Recover the amino acids of this structure.
């Protein structure tokens, strides 16, 4: 397939790791996408059907294939989504690219420079040759794709995305004193994946709000690296992640002191409001505004492709909350935004209901 | 140790499978028990300490031992609690008994006749010789122990216990038409154990009240068999089990039409009230009374050794609710009641606070 | 408005009690409905906007009006949805009907004969004249509307709907011995409404599965009355309702012995499967099949207009589980089905995604 | 009563506001306290009994009295606990004190200087004369009580306590650069009290982790004021509070850069460990140590009088987590510590099981 010039065309797509939580959301989005034809779902388990998880008239038309059928089927695809662990993505990406298949990888395999990756993930990188050509698909901030094919797009991490959505506009305008930056993120348990693990059992998660990987989460180097790449600013924030007794949704509390040039109090708050309005004026997937239950609610973004950015200024203190659905903007729907980039479609294609807009 | 004549003595006890949810509750109870000295906890994992789970001044005095040290340590013990799967209990029980150690088994291994067991559990029984000598420890209903040692006591199942507590008094007095009996039980997720399993993940359990093993739960034959043994009545109830998005607690709804001799309406309700009062008049671990939030609340029994039985009569319809903590009366605290039987102590020893009773 | 012959027409609709949980779901559905134009939302509170709860491009076009503006605005409407308590619905319905506005009432005000209502709801009926003309809108079972206008449609209760969906096909075919029928229903907390009440606080609901109105829920006479009206069968089931620590969703366990003519075991199960298949062959909003996690999951129906009916036969015992979203099929989406009846549209219009069906 | 010299004596105590969540926990603790005799519980509602909420052999010996019986009963009391809103505490405290009754107030009424109080609570102070004599009972940090009677003790706020437990030792030793301090606190919903409110409904709290009073919580001035009073350090931290979908428990994330004198990395971590060890060496109600699931778990402190302080150093970044039960150390058990101060008892009297310590 060419890169999307013929939009009536349906691009043939597949998902590897389709039975996981992000994989299922991807399947749901792609089944509904006007320019995608989901033909295959690959998974290590074979005893399942899409309709076990999704009601859709096309659900049973998708083939469930085993991982060792990938090689045979790959040539029939335009784009593949890898909803797999980093070690599997590193193993598979090259093969797809060689067969001319665009790769949108939802793992952390291609988001970081080699050395940073190996330290953050505690593993050897086994596809280093691809690191330089991977595009980091944080949207709407990622630049244009190189006009060559096939493409390798690294879909950003869930926590990192929630931070980027708030931080990139702020840092691009020099709004905060970056040495005062502290980020406290909380995620629903689906962020831990569907693989059985004692610490993700209902009985363990319920009643808790447990911090984990304190100061050491692998999304911290992702944040630092790409904030520098996108805004030229070097940051070194404190960063904590918590596991919420909630199914889906991330809320990141982003705390910093305002830059002196922004002043303080209500005037500064007005400037911050304008800054976010402007940053997202042509991007329909972010809502910004002062803090309010509506703006800080996880349930208002869960199931949607939207992020919400809310803020409050007290003196020189800036409180920002960024919410999103970890399985959507934090994974599957941002992957579909990247798919839309490949096809030169508007980023939000297939992600916003058009009902009622007529 | 003799069978409890010298109550100032501390009986040496150990737990096999101590790191599971029931095992930890057992450890908590035994550390506090005036006549128990918990010396060893056996588990397949070794990288843990009692104090990871329990704050207790004696927690770090308990040895954490691997399963292959059992043989060496067994001779030093008076009683062992098996908080293990049925297959492990079948493997271990004989060895302990031969070394003169009493066994209180929390699994389903010794609760049923051979044929019934093999059908209900879908496995071969590997210690059939022990089936005839196992005592079924449903309390306060179990009879006196044979005065020989060592003893093998089968601790009843959690759902089955919740049903027995309501049903045995009713059937003993012929209060219901048994052919109308329907039981709908709901359990907190800790009933599924601590072993990682996809269906017990927070993200799977949250938001659901999922029936499972519909009409086929292995506690149904346990209920049928021991109801007949204890009351002489043959029943064949409908029985469903559900997984609640709750950590601990079982509530069983027990529905039947009253026997004609009981009449209907308020008069019948008075008779039912009297029946339960009388049944449990000398047993402090059951509270009975008409339905009310207090009487039907899981949180009121969770963390305690108590059961609560509540009832309502509408015409000839009898609604009974039986609540208990699946890890306590449904497992660990009933095991301690059985330990108290071994020592000829009151059943509730070590299970009811004596504070405030002075 | 005529009764829907011109389907390109948009019917002007309003919601009274729009800020409650069912009201908001109704607003969401009506904003998206191709043949509805939602113009007004009436509520006792005025300090809110639709966009506090729903993201929709038309959300801010809907007027939020106070209850005392009803009289002024009613003449501009074709149909009004009353998502109000029974006492308010009784007060308002007559006025709307007199002004020629169709009324779809989501309360219990018009579902029962006078005497039964007053006993079940513990209140005087203040609009008795309307009782005889109210249509009971259980779908797909309700008969054709009388061809006169305006119409008063009583939308069925949430629990009652979950029971009807399973019971009407069974009783229509004489599949069960009705004297053995027991119904155990469990509902998410949104069924209790949005009005602040101590027993619905998070801290009260969490950790519990509390039965309430044991044997006395007002949906029991609704079930008995309309089962008789629709199938000619008189039933007198045991019926319990529980409050789940879950936001949305109802699961009703429906337990009975099979009629002798149905036989037992696998053969009987096949007959039951066929019975449900046939009953719903031309109605896309019910899925039926043998019990499975997929079929009994609340999360699979929450947010949808669908019901799921699953069943298992053991000997002569029939276990049926009926699931639905209490705010959708149990309230708002069934109200939209009734709206579709008014307009002679297919029942599922506006309730099933047509994406992916092309 | 004298101030506790005769410890065999039982001090006569009452609770005002006894039916709320903190009130009930207080009742539970006082019923078990060896030197307390709980004689009366005052509440606005009268249709309840202690045994609705607590199983205790003495539960039904406590009189439930209406608020207008206070004047009559007060003279019989030694100490009263006010588990009431600030406006009620301001109204009642003076009367009790005049009758010679010690007052331990759990509200915010007497924690702050006049001006700070009125700004933080948005209300007039109606008992200003008492402000200068109120003792701020943060333990173990509060100094000796003045040896005069009766005493007015202001029990600290729940969030504030969680912060003090971590911050006082740190600031007392100059461990952090206070200008970098950020505090992100999360609380279970019982912190919102038992009064029905829409935002505390199960359906609203579930699925969320909602920030509230962002930067404006009334515990922030309490923290600032008493940190200065106790350590001489002036701080101006960023502070956020969140509502967790959890019943009980607070976790405060306390983030700051280490003072230069503390160095960085592992050496600094050792110093921080020593600092907390030393601070709490003679106080049994705090456990401190490096971050771990055990140390950061809410469920490990819920139901206990303990706080847990855990920490991690990365470079010059100090992450500290402070957990406690908002109804215990954050309210009722700290109030009992203050009661123990009144009686010259060890602070932990009646708060730590002595079982197993023999």
């Amino acid at each position: 397939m060419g890169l999307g010039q013929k939009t009536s065309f349906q691009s043939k797509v597949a998902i590897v790791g389709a039975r996981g939580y992000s994989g299922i959301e991807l399947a749901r989005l792609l089944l509904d996408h006007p320019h995608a034809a989901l033909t295959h779902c690959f998974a290590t388990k074979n005893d399942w059907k899409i309709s076990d998880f999704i009601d859709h008239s096309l659900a049973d038309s998708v083939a469930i294939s085993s991982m060792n059928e990938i090689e045979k089927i790959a040539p029939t695809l335009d784009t593949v989504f890898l909803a797999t662990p980093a070690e599997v993505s590193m193993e598979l990406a090259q093969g797809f690219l060689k067969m001319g298949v665009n790769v949108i990888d939802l793992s952390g395999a291609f988001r970081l420079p080699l050395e940073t990756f190996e330290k953050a993930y505690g593993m050897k990188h086994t596809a280093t040759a691809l690191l330089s050509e991977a595009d980091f698909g944080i949207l709407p901030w990622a630049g244009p794709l190189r006009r060559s094919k096939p493409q390798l797009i690294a879909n950003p991490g869930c926590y990192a995305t929630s931070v980027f959505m708030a931080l990139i506009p702020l840092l691009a305008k020099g709004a905060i004193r970056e040495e005062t930056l502290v980020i406290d993120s909380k995620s629903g348990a689906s962020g831990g994946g569907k693989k059985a693990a004692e610490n993700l059992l209902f009985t363990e998660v319920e009643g808790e709000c447990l911090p984990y990987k304190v100061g050491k989460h692998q999304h911290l180097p992702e944040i630092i690296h790409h904030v520098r790449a996108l805004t030229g600013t070097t940051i070194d924030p404190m960063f904590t992640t918590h596991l919420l007794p909630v199914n889906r949704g991330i809320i990141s509390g982003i705390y910093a002191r305002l830059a002196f040039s922004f002043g303080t109090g209500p005037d500064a708050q007005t400037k911050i409001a304008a800054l976010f309005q402007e940053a997202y004026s042509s991007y329909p997937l972010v809502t910004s505004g002062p803090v309010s239950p509506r703006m800080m609610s996880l349930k208002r973004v869960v199931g949607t492709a939207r992020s919400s950015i809310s803020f409050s200024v007290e003196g020189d203190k800036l409180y920002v909350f960024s919410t999103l659905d970890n399985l959507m903007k934090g994974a599957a729907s941002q992957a579909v935004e990247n798919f839309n980039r490949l096809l030169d479609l508007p980023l939000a294609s297939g992600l916003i209901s058009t009902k009622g807009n007529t």
